[in-house]
Amino acid sequence: MERPFPTPTIEELTAIAELRAALRRFHRATDAIALRQGLTARRYDLLAMLHSAPGRTRTLGELARLLELSPNATTELVDRAVSAGLVTRTGGGEDARVKQIAPTPHGTSCFYAAVEELRPERRRLLAILEEIAAHSARLSES
C-alpha cells in the first residue's frame, strides 16, 4: 500500500527544478573553466580541498574522505596530479608512512585562475540558493 504524501505546491516544485538546473549549470561551468586552466574537474576539487586546509596540506586519507573517493581512486588522482606538476607528496612528520599532499605553485596558479573565472557562476548559484532558502522559510511558516 502506497503511503500518501502531501501534494507539494507549484512554488516548491518550481524551486526544486530551478535548483537542479542551477546545479547542473554550475557543474558544467566548473568543468569547462577548470579545463581551460589545465585542470580536470577532479583535480580542481583536489586543489580546492588542499587550498582550504590549514597549511594547505592534507593526507591521502583526509582527501579520500573529503572527495568521497576510495583510497585507490584518491591515490590515482594524486599520482596523476603529481605527474602534471599540480601537487607534491612528502613524508609526514612523526610517521613517514603518512604522506602529506600539497599544491605546487603551478597548481595554485591554475586553481586561482579557475576560482577567479568561476566567481560570477558562484555568485549566481548563491543568489538562487538564497532565494530558495527564503521560499522554504515562507513554506515552513505556512
Notes on the structure:
The protein has 142 residues and is mainly alpha-helical. The protein has one domain (11-141): Winged helix-like DNA-binding domain superfamily/Winged helix DNA-binding domain (Arc Repressor Mutant, subunit A), CATH 1.10.10. Helices cover 68% and strands 8% of the residues. It has 5 helices and 3 strands; from the N terminus they run H-H-E-H-H-E-E-H. The protein has a 3-stranded antiparallel beta sheet with strand order 1-3-2. Strand 2 (87-91) and strand 3 form a beta hairpin. It is elongated and about 55 Å long. The mean pLDDT is 90.
Adjacency order of strands in the biggest sheet = 1-3-2
Query: Helix count?
Result: 5
CATH architecture: Orthogonal Bundle
- Portion in beta strands: 5-15%
Low-confidence stretches: none
Structural class: mainly alpha
Mean pLDDT level: 90
| First and last CA, distance | 29 Å
Number of strands: 3
Q: What is the level 1 CATH name?
A: Mainly Alpha
Order of helices and strands: HHEHHEEH
CATH superfamily: Winged helix-like DNA-binding domain superfamily/Winged helix DNA-binding domain
**Tally of structural domains:** 1
The 3D shape can be described as: elongated
Helix content: 55-70%
What summary fits the major beta sheet? 3 strands, antiparallel
